[in-house]
Design brief:
Chain B: Its EC number is 1.1.99.14. Chain B: It is an enzyme of class 1 (oxidoreductase). Chain B: GO terms for molecular function: 4 iron, 4 sulfur cluster binding; glycolate dehydrogenase activity; metal ion binding. The complex is a heterodimer of chains A (454) and B (435). The longest helix of chain A has 20 residues. With 454 residues, chain A is an alpha+beta fold. Chain A has 16 helices and 18 strands. Helix content of chain A is 36%, strand content 20%. Chain B is α/β, with parallel strands linked by helices. Chain B has 3 domains: 88 residues, Alpha-helical ferredoxin (Fumarate Reductase Iron-sulfur Protein, Chain B, domain 2), CATH 1.10.1060.10; 205 residues, no CATH class; 117 residues, Rossmann fold. Chain B is built from 25 helices and 9 strands. In chain B, the strands form 2 sheets. Chain B has a 5-stranded mixed sheet with strand order 1-3-2-4-5. A 4-stranded parallel sheet of chain B has the order 7-6-8-9, with helices on both faces. In chain B, helix 24 links the parallel strand 8 and strand 9. The radius of gyration of chain B is 21 Å and the shape is globular. The relative contact order of chain B is 0.10. The mean pLDDT of chain B is 91. Classes of the chains: A alpha+beta (454), B alpha/beta (435). Chains A and B meet through helix 2, helix 9 and helix 12 of A and helix 1, helix 3 and helix 4 of B.
Chain lengths: 454, 435
């Protein structure tokens, strides 16, 4: 099989030594690790298809990955299996300002996609925290969200068409470049967020928007998380949809400040990052309204970024929150439970209570405007007793999330990390339907086996 | 005895939660797009070695030599992974186990690390010999006659990169004790460095002048040991500890307001003596005091409030750009201060260099051990410098200085390389001329 891979993609693009393959044994998820037997770097769609056919002939499981920044174990390999790493396929093929679309290969870095759009005054809104290194193909596979999800939604909302290699090695084009397209089943949507279990996305056609003319970034500090959550609910209730309403709890603020050194107020219980974009007049108006609302809800300190540069700095501080929390304890376990926005304050309080009950350290931050929370357990995987309590706490948080009508994952996907809870959220019928889809597309179960469900 | 990867505090390895934020900042990952060539991949390998899952072998050794040690990853890392410590531990492990040992490598390492850089008198003697060899034109003659082929491989590669050795070294230019003309506000020690001393002794003189012009009495011992940074970065922590003790004995930190260094690479190592000597009961406390007193020259000047020169170092307005030495920027986090000083100088138009903090490929002996990767990075750096249309490139580490000067020369660009301190010293000197 190795020899066939070598002749398919060139010998220099096939890695087999333990030093080469071992670093492909994980993604950004803590505690999940498994070394592949071979890592192959195809250079184009035809080579991806050929690799899938070769692996199929040998019955070898194939796990596809980009930069490996996923947070649910979606690209963690199968022991001794094949990893298809698509970072060589990183071209941005076309920006089409007439149709407001952008075509890119799967390995294109998310930030580069937005920069390519920006060169034409356009904007690619989804912005996962890892956008400096995550790939667009990975974003599609995991249906990634980001800091602007509140106003702009997630990756799905920007995918118009996909080129996909199917488990049998055939190549399919799904969706098209029309704004309106209702021909047949929406197959492209089936593949978005399918975590590499149904096919391998090799090329994407994305919708891009005119770049907002103005943007304003503000932050406000609060005594505690509940008052911040209430302020957020009040902003939404006032029918304002800013692009970003992010929060960090006190511990997260302190870790981020230690890393970024941008002068965040570190003595607060919670910090709210607010951003509004669009027409300059609307931006001014929305910003003023938000300032008024947070003040009414007891904000201690309200700061407005004086320019775009400072705004970017504040937003990038928020992007680093997850990694910055790793300063506190050796192992960092991140969740992305999401609840309806009206249940935010209750959920935030519940997380704090569960952490206290089990004697655990939890830093919480997230996308408050869309109800997407990131309770982050700061622990040590070598401490079996503590890990046991982490799992208990996680169970309770998930149970509460589902009771509130929430979801086990808002933007990271199910992968390995959350598959034990999927059935509970979906119910039997839709769970079985998912398995049926997988079985009909990939009857031998060779593409990313064991992810989402067994 | 420094710990091996098997013994190191495991939480340093765990600190990496493989988020990947380091990848876009890593020059070797940027080149190959292979995980093992990234900080995240290297730490994964180290962790597997610590776990006993992977043997410490030739491939790992090769990987650790491919790493520049530029520490850009450390700046980028939100989780605060101490990559420098992991890197030095891994390299020390590799040396201890003799994985890369072969006769010529042992010979050169012994000659440089164990002999020359352990003994300042021998180093200067070697410098003197090299100076006369270059001055007499033997180097050009040998090249013309094709005799370079007789040299062993790595020396042959090294030869064209040998710096032009100065005719006079720092102790010929700087008296052991010098006092400012006016009031003495601070008392500092000046470290002259090894490469800096041999190749750029005038920069040491400039540093002393700038200190004097800012009210500092300067103590500069004639014979100074190497700071040990070469040893620490190349897997010889025990020798680095010996040198650290000698340095502390020579310049007792309690006697000075600051111990000044003007080389980014040395400075980055010098402020970590407390790690190196943590288990030495006689030196641990003094090493902590030492670490507190070590100051990069730019950092020190900005901290004490630098005097704005009354003259320009140039005849007419000149555009200057600035390349950040990795160990100044990532190792010491000194980013703003050199720019503050440059912007303060009259007659100097400062332009920002794109990718100013991207490594130039010098990285100690990297340009000898990894010539291809080093050349790739140098080309990238030179093309950015050319793009700024600056006439002067300022930088603060002798390795970068030599590497970039060579790149500019090879591309035929009329850009000179200067230490920011040199420009400042020149400006102060011209005050009297213009007055």
């Amino acid at each position: 099989m190795i020899a066939e891979f070598r002749s398919a993609v060139g010998p220099e693009h096939v890695l087999t030594s333990p030093e080469d393959t071992l670093p492909y044994g994980f993604d950004g998820t803590a505690t999940l690790r498994c070394s592949p037997g071979v890592v192959v770097f195809p250079g184009n769609t035809a080579e991806v298809a050929e690799c899938v056919r070769i692996a199929g002939r040998y019955g070898a499981p194939v796990v596809t990955r980009g930069s490996g920044t996923g947070l649910s174990g979606g690209s963690v390999p199968v022991k001794d299996g094949v990893v298809l790493c698509l970072v060589r396929m990183d071209a941005i093929l076309e920006v089409d300002p007439r149709n407001l679309t952008l075509r890119a290969q799967c390995g294109a870095i998310t930030l580069k996609v937005d920069e390519a759009a920006a060169a034409h005054g356009l904007f690619y809104p989804p912005d996962p925290g890892s956008l400096k290194i995550s790939t667009i193909g990975g974003n599609v596979a995991e249906n990634s969200g980001g800091l602007r999800g509140l106003k702009y939604g997630v990756t799905r909302d920007y995918v118009m068409a996909l080129e996909v290699v199917l488990p049998d090695g055939s190549i399919a084009k799904l969706g098209n470049g029309c704004v309106k397209d209702v021909a047949g089943y929406s197959l492209k949507d089936l593949f978005i967020g399918s975590e590499g279990t149904l096919g391998i996305v090799t090329e994407v056609l994305l919708k891009v928007l005119p770049r907002p003319a103005a943007r304003k970034t503000m932050l406000a500090t609060f005594e505690d998380m509940e008052s911040a959550a209430k302020a957020v609910s009040a902003i939404i209730a006032a029918k304002i949809i800013p692009c970003t309403l992010e929060f960090l709890d006190g511990m997260t603020v302190r870790c981020v400040e230690e890393y970024a050194g941008i002068g965040l107020p570190v003595d607060c219980g919670a910090l709210l990052l607010m951003e509004t974009d669009g027409h300059p007049a609307a931006v001014e108006d929305e910003a003023a309204c938000m300032v008024e609302i947070v003040r009414e809800h007891g904000a201690h300190e309200i700061r407005t970024a004086k320019d775009a540069e400072e705004g970017l700095k504040l937003a990038s501080a928020r992007r680093s929150a997850f990694s910055a929390l790793a300063r506190v304890r050796p192992t960092t376990i991140l969740e992305d439970v999401t609840v309806p926005r009206s249940a935010l304050a209750e959920m935030v309080a519940y997380i704090a209570a569960v952490a206290a009950k089990h004697g655990l350290m939890v830093g919480t931050f997230g996308h408050m405007g869309d109800g997407n929370l990131h309770p982050t357990f700061l622990t040590d995987e070598r401490n079996a007793d503590e890990m046991e309590r982490v799992h208990l706490a996680l169970e309770e948080i998930v149970a509460k999330t589902l009771a509130l009508g929430g979801t086990i994952t808002g933007e990271h996907g199910v992968g390995l990390a959350k598959k034990m809870w999927l059935k509970r959220q979906m119910g039997d019928a839709s769970y079985e339907l998912m398995k049926l889809v997988k079985a009909s597309l990939d009857p031998r179960g060779l593409l990313n086996p064991g992810k989402i469900f067994d | 005895m420094t710990p091996s990867l098997r013994e190191i505090d495991y939480s340093v390895l765990q600190q990496c939660m493989h988020c990947g934020m380091c990848l876009p900042t890593c020059p070797t990952y940027d080149t190959t797009r292979r995980e093992r060539n990234s900080p995240r991949g290297r730490i994964a390998l180290m962790r597997s070695i610590a776990d006993g899952e992977l043997q410490l072998g030739k491939e790992f050794a090769k990987e650790m030599s491919y790493c520049l040690g530029c520490l850009a990853c450390q700046t980028a890392c939100p989780a605060g992974v101490d990559y420098a410590r992991l890197f030095e531990t891994a390299r020390a492990d590799i040396e201890r186990q003799g994985i890369q040992d072969e006769p010529s490598r042992i010979f050169w390492r012994t000659l440089t690390l164990r002999i020359l850089f352990m003994n300042p008198r021998l180093l200067r003697l070697a410098g003197r010999v090299l100076y006369f060899y270059q001055k007499a034109g033997f180097d050009r003659a040998m090249r013309r006659l094709g005799l370079m082929r007789l040299l062993p491989g790595n020396l042959r590669r090294l030869e064209p990169q040998t710096p032009q050795v100065c005719s006079r070294f720092s102790h010929d230019l700087i008296r052991a004790d010098e006092s400012p003309a006016g009031e003495t506000r601070h008392r500092v020690a000046l470290l002259t460095g090894c490469v800096q001393d041999l190749a750029f002794s005038s920069i040491n003189r400039d540093t002393a002048d700038v200190l004097l012009a800012n009210g500092c009495a300067v103590h500069t011992p004639a014979w100074q040991p190497c700071c040990g940074s070469l040893h620490a970065h190349n897997g010889e922590p025990e020798m680095a500890a010996v040198l650290a003790r000698r340095m502390i004995d020579l310049l007792p930190p309690e006697e000075f307001d600051a111990i000044i260094t003007n080389a980014g690479g040395c400075g980055s190592h010098l402020r970590h003596y407390s790690h190196l000597l943590a288990d030495d009961p006689r030196y641990a406390e003094r090493a902590r005091e030492w670490d507190r007193k070590v100051r990069d020259i730019h950092e020190w000047l900005v901290a004490i409030g630098p005097r704005v020169p009354g003259a320009s170092p140039f005849e007419s307005e000149t555009t200057v750009t600035y390349h950040e030495s990795c160990h100044l920027t990532h190792g010491q986090k000194i980013v703003a201060q050199p720019r503050v000083l440059l912007r303060m100088i009259p007659g100097l138009r400062y332009v920002e260099l794109p990718e100013a903090s991207w490594c130039c490929g010098s990285a100690g002996v990297y340009n000898i051990t990894q010539p291809e990767q080093s050349a790739r990075m140098l080309d990238r750096k030179i093309s950015h410098i050319a793009g700024t249309r600056a006439l002067v490139l300022a930088t603060s580490n002798p390795g970068c200085h030599l590497q970039i000067a060579r790149g500019l020369r090879e591309q035929g660009l009329a850009v000179t390389v200067e230490q920011p301190v040199t420009l400042l010293a020149r400006a102060y000197r011209r005050e009297t001329l213009s007055a």
